[in-house]
Structure formats: C-alpha cells, structure tokens
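Q: What would this chain look like folded?
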Amino acid sequence: MKLVNTLAAAVLLTTAGHALGIEPTYYQIYESKVSECVAIEKSKTPVQASDLAGIDRETAAVGIFYLKDKRIVDCSATDELRALAHELLNKKADVSELKHKYMSIDSVEREQEFSQLAEPQRHRLVSAVEGKSLEVDLVSLFDELDARK
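A: My prediction, written as structure tokens:
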C-alpha cells in the first residue's frame, strides 16, 4: 500500500512539475513508468485461485510475489537503470536505501527464493499465471487457496 501511495504521489508531482515547466528527475520518470506498468498489469484478467489448482500455497506465495515484481521490473527496467545510474553518478546514493527505492534490487532476494522451488512447480506456476494479472488482492487470493485444502 505504501508503494501505491508513493507512486500516486509521484505521478501527481510529475504531472504538476510538467505543468509548471519543471523537468522531472530520472527517478520521477522511473516512478511514473512503474505506475504505467502496474496499470498494464491491472488491465489483464485477474488470476484466480482456480488458476492455481494443483499448486501448493507456499509455492504459489513465493512464486506470485516474485513474478509480480519481475513483471514490473522487466517493464520498467530501462527507466530504472537510467535513474539508478544518475543517482550513483551524482553520488546521491545511500546504498542502504537503494533496496527500498529500486524494485530490481529488492527482487533479487525473491528470485533466489523462487529459484529454490522445485522446477516442475515453478514451471506449473508460471504457466498458470501467464497472461493473468497478479495485481490482485493477494490476501483474499491466499485465503481462498487456504480454504480449498
């Protein structure tokens, strides 16, 4: 929720800045791109618990959190790299803060966790959610998965 609020604020600030003739920062451009990528994901048919038949809850949780981030990271990669490079070149970067600002840095941990899942389960999950939106109410989705046990 914090990320959604931050992204919404960034979009508003970027829009207001353009109206005042102020050029957006590379980071603001990246934030705007992330918002655009989330909107693209939300436009897809939402994943349902029934799509995850035969996939255990733990695999679904690890995989969905990773794949959800990966899609946004892949979509916004160019703008993220540009913003990160400018931040590093301008020596404004607090390394401990980068994980919280840039999705690809944070997603490395999720990728490691995802890669530890059994390969057949990973492939089954990837196939099950292909073309489906993962920008859904995950609490409700996991509650539904728990209820079908």
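Residues 2-147 form one domain.
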